[in-house]
């Protein structure tokens, strides 16, 4: 998985600077990022606090873990069905 250079706290801080009146181009130049990245962050983290962002991260991790478990269970179930359906 791709690692980011910025933590959630830093991202929310940059977005707060923008809300305070700083221009997007100036912020991007100052922090060394593209405007596309800035707008992606704004779509994902806009209006959040640091605690909400941490909660979102933990929920995303838990959701990924549950999806993986579900996929493994479905694969096991399909293998069992195929094994039972074979004629001996």
* Cα gyration radius (Å): 21 Å
Low-confidence stretches: none
Overall mean confidence score, pLDDT: 91
| Count of extended strands | 0
Q: Which bin fits the share of residues in helices?
A: over 70%
The fraction of residues in strands falls at under 5%
| Global outline | elongated
Classify the oligomer. single chain
Order of helices and strands: HHHH
- Number of helical elements: 4
Structural class: mainly alpha
| C-alpha end-to-end distance | 45 Å
Described by strand count, sense and barrel closure, the largest sheet is: none
Which descriptors would you attach to this protein?
88 residues, mainly alpha, 4 helices, Transposase_8, transposase activity, Transposase, DNA binding
Explained architecture:
By secondary structure, this protein is mainly α. It contains 4 helices and no strands. The chain has helices at 8-19, 24-31, 35-45, 50-85. This is Transposase. It comes from Allgaiera indica. InterPro entries: Homeodomain-like_sf (IPR009057), Transposase_8 (IPR002514), Transposase_8_domain (IPR052546). One of its GO terms (molecular function) is DNA binding.
